[in-house]
Amino acid sequence: MIEATGKSGRARGEAVLAIFQRGAEFTKQLLDENARLQRELAEVKRRQSDAAQSDGEWSKLRSELVSKIEELENENHSMLERLRSVEGENLQFAERYVEIEEENNNLANLYVASYQLHSTLDSAEVVKAILEIVINLIGAEVFSVHVCEEGGDVLVPVAVEGDQLEKCPEFRIGEGFVGQSVETGEVAVADPATTGGLPSEAGEPIVSIPLRVEEKPVGAIVIYRLLQQKSGFSPLDNELFTLLAGQAATAIFASRLYAQSERKLSTIKGFIELLTQ
């Protein structure tokens, strides 16, 4: 009986021990599982932290890139503005260069015209030079050159271009468009639209250039029509009008004095020859 009781106690003890062992194993499994979950949780937190840090770095990099792009755009805009400014300056320089070239060309033309007028004392050559200046530099198609004898008041045509000399009218100083211009010594320019720019036999003068020396009338250059390619007068034309008003008058006056002196000299020589014979 005592032996049976002892066996029964050992059996219960073994059963309880087995239960404790299973509990210990289960507890160990729980601890291991908890440790594994703790490690996974830490890994998730680390990844979240890395991701957050990565997002922050990307945001910072993105901000820097956007700032750099804006800076480059501003620089590009500034360079474009500077380029436009340089292009404008280049255009101004080009326009000024053309103006200077035109001014130099005008000065050269004025010099050539002045030289032609004073390169000879022959009246016919002086008139020829005046015709060439008016044709080539002013661009007149129909015009005439008139002279006034000393002490007279009638302007007689001595040369004409684009018309016949016999059809060219005379003008009296102080009367009409041409006569008043010669009397006052002022260049008279009419509006071609009002005259029609017709030839001399049907139209009126559009320009009268008085030729005077020391307030004395010498003659006039009368323009009736311009060349087809010339629509109006330029600043050079006005300078040429002034040049002709003074230089052409001086050239004609000098050629007259020279012709008179030649005639007087010829007369004196003839008289001397008669005395010496």
Concise overview:
The chain has 277 residues and is of the alpha+beta class.
Describe the structure.
This protein has 277 residues and is of the alpha+beta class. It has a domain at 121-265: Beta-Lactamase (2-Layer Sandwich), CATH 3.30.450.40. Helices cover 68% and strands 14% of the residues. The protein is built from five helices and six strands; from the N terminus they run ααβββαβαββα. The protein has helices at 2-118, 123-138, 176-184, 192-195, 235-276; strands spanning 140-148, 154-161, 171-172, 188-189, 207-213, 216-226. α1 (2-118) packs antiparallel against α2.
Which tags fit this structure?
277 residues; alpha+beta; Beta-Lactamase; 6-stranded antiparallel sheet; 6 strands
Q: Quickly give the structural class.
A: alpha+beta
Radius of gyration: 56 Å
- What is the name of the CATH class of the domain at 121-265? Alpha Beta
Unreliable stretches? 194-202
Counting DSSP H or I runs of 4 or more residues, the number of helices is: 5
Query: Per the principal axes of the C-alpha atoms, what is the gross shape?
Result: rod-shaped
Q: Please tell me the CATH architecture of the domain at 121-265 by its name.
A: 2-Layer Sandwich
User: In the CATH hierarchy, what is the superfamily of the domain at 121-265?
Assistant: GAF domain
Quote the average pLDDT: 79
As an assembly, this protein is single chain
Largest sheet: 6 strands, antiparallel
What is the spatial order of strands in the main beta sheet?
A: 3-2-1-6-5-4
What's the order of the H and E elements? Answer: HHEEEHEHEEH
Fold-level CATH name of the domain at 121-265:
Beta-Lactamase
Give the % helix: 55-70%
Please provide the count of β strands: 6
* Distance N to C terminus: 210 Å
Q: How big a fraction of the residues is strand?
A: 5-15%
